[in-house]
Amino acid sequence: MDTLPPQFVEIVDAVRDLYVSQFAETVAGFSEETHVVEPVLLDAEGDIAVEGPLRLPYRADYASLETGSLESFTAPRELSFEPFSFTLGGTRIVVAPFAWDYATLRVSGDWDALATRLFADWHRRAFGDDEAEDNIRLQNVIHVASTPEVTDAGYVFEADLGTAPASTMSDLLLALLANSPERIEIGTGEQSPAQGPASERSEA
C-alpha cells in the first residue's frame, strides 16, 4: 500500500499540536494534591469501567480531587483548513476540519469481524494502560472512542484522541484501510477535495 501523503501527516501533526499545547497549558497549573490528569474511569467496584459491545474503557480529561468531579477541557482555538482528498489502495479518503478531541470518522465499508478486530486492536494500543508515573503527567493516549454505529453506507464513530501522538490518527487510518473500504471521511464540513493553507481559528 502507498504511504500516507505529506499533506495528511502535516495537517494531523498541526491539529494535534495545537490541541495538546492548549491542554498542557491548562494542566500545568495543577498539582498532585488537587487533580488527576487523564484518569481511567472506574466502576463502583473499582474495576475499569467499560461501555458498549466492545467493552471499551475510557478516560476523563482530568478529575478534581477537591470535589471528586470529572472535568472536561475545551480548546479555545482549533485549526481551520480546506478539505482535501487522496486515494490509497483503492480507498478514497476525504479529510475535512476536525477537532482532535472530537474527530468523526465515516467509513463506507463493512463493519464485519475483520473491521471489529482491526478497530479493537488499534483502540487497545492507543488507549494505553493505567500505570501513570504521577497524577499530572500527560499520558500520550486517547481518551475514548465510541463503538462504531452501523449505517446504510457503512459505519461511523467518534474519537477523543486526548494527548495521543499524531501517529495515532495515521495508525487508525491504516487499520481502517486494512479492510479495504470504498471511502473514509474524517471530520465534518463540505466533502469536496480542495487545496489551501491551514490557519488557526479561535472559538468565541
Task: Summarize the SSE layout with pairings.
Elements: H1 6-27, E1 35-37, E2 50-51, E3 56-57, E4 62-64, E5 70-71, E6 77-80, E7 84-88, E8 91-95, E9 103-108, H2 113-127, E10 144-145, E11 149-150, E12 155-160, H3 167-177, E13 183-186, E14 199-202
Parallel strand pairs: 8-13
Antiparallel strand pairs: 1-4, 2-3, 4-5, 6-14, 7-8, 9-12, 9-13, 10-12, 11-12
Helix pairs in contact: 2-3
Structural features, described:
The chain contains three helices and 14 strands. By secondary structure, it is of the alpha+beta class. It has one domain. The longest helix has 22 residues, at 6-27. The radius of gyration is 17 Å and the shape is globular. The model is unreliable at 189-197 (pLDDT under 50).
**Which descriptor suits the 3D outline?**
globular
Number of helices: 3
- Count of discrete structural domains: 1
Count of extended strands: 14
Distance between the termini: 42 Å
Unreliable spans: 189-197
Strand content: 15-25%
Assembly type: single chain
Helix-strand pattern: HEEEEEEEEEHEEEHEE
Structural class: alpha+beta
What would the keywords be for this entry?
204 residues; three-stranded antiparallel beta sheet; single chain; 3 helices; alpha+beta; seven-stranded mixed beta sheet
Q: What is the gist of this entry?
A:
The protein has helices at 6-27, 113-127, 167-177, and strands at 35-37, 50-51, 56-57, 62-64, 70-71, 77-80, 84-88, 91-95, 103-108, 144-145, 149-150, 155-160, 183-186, 199-202.
